[in-house]
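Honest question from a wet-lab person: if I give you the sequences of every part of a complex, can you actually get the arrangement of the whole thing, not just the pieces? Trying it with mine:
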Amino acid sequence: MLKVRVIPTLLYKNFGLVKGERFNSWRRVGTALQSVNVYSIREVDELVFLDITATEEKRQPDFEIIDDLTDECFMPFTAGGGIRNIEDIHGLLRVGADKVAINSAAVVSPGLIRDAARRFGAQCVIVSIDFKKYRDDGYEVFINSGKTATGLTPLELAKEAEELGAGEILLTSIDRDGTMSGYELDCIRQVSEAISIPVIASGGAGCPQHFYEAITIGKASAVAAASVFHFTELTPLDVKHYLHQHDIPVRLPDTEPK
Amino acid sequence: MKKIAIIDYSMCNLDSVSRAVDRCGGTPSITSEASGIRNADGIILPGVGAFAEAMTELESRDLIKPIKTQVLERHVPFLGICLGMQLMATKGYEGGVTSGLDLIRGEVVRLVPDSPQTRIPHVGWNEIIKIKASPLFQDVPDKANFYFVHSYHFKCDNEYIITTTQYCGGFVSTVGHENCFGVQFHPEKSLKTGLLLLRNFINIC
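Yes, you can. This is the full assembly:
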């Protein structure tokens, strides 16, 4: 049976890892390499690494850093931030990323999704959608690290991304980011039910129950989190034990060979 | 040390595979030339991407004949990973009908969801069910988890099936015939279990 993935997200800014709140007030949380190594030792299901200021600073992805980070990483690694063209994607895959997360470019140049899926396969193209709650009745997609409104709803963008050939959607609530107050379940459910590619819920996880809700209420295929793993004692394995106890299929290390 | 040629046809997560081979005690040699394939003890064809594009890339580098000669005539051990496994088939249906390497008789077709909740691509950790004993799976327990990410799968005769996996009604997750092996999952991304499988492959070489 396919297992639900629990994915730590690493946010990278100016040579260090950071964790903020509502996409602002970034705090440093140690160097990137150390974190990747810790998660490698803990044998997490998968890692997502986002270079959050690359697009804003008009930088290319930092291929050297991705190369270093994936050295000891024998699990799936997704790289995002600063991807603008097919060469960026090729470069990231070449140095060891398995998938790429496209955020701003998915709105600015959606043709990139189609070209990337055709060239590298749908399975390695994740479209990363950041959204805010808009008044009471809807949601809006923001790009450039949550700074630029797009007039699109997450549902519209997710459907378009699926049509263009994206393999997964990483759906992040800016309002919930770093608050540890729970996922934006309504939006996650809306998107999950409307498309047939996997949705990774992100933004707001604060305790094991939140992950459970994202799967059962939000219908997400995978759950991502950052703050809760950086700032509390909770580990991805603790979350998986909780999910396992509540009949959600997860990969537990005791099933692996010694 | 066994020299393992990792074929570079610009469709691969080359570094991941190369690092994993190195970790497993092989000497990885990334190559896009026939000579690199000819002097290796084992050949790995990795790959992420689309079937038709991949065959075009292999063809434009004149790699198809050297691969077939080494594998089918000189019996050099061969491991196809993910798209690399799919390319071992007779033909593929991704992006039109395309001829494959035809190392193992079979076809590559799209996964068909067996329920409204089933999502394509099949992404994540899933179990392999052992159908036939193989040196590739020595010490790998039945129902071990490997990492998958794919939308197409390999259809072939029962005699070539080494493992299957439950998704979309079940599909072939490992094929094998003599010195030829193909895995739909990514051993280089499947932590300890994946490295164990790669070590087994290097031992066969």
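Two things worth pointing out. The two ends of chain B are 10 Å apart (CA to CA). Chain B touches chain A through 48 residues (CB under 8 Å).
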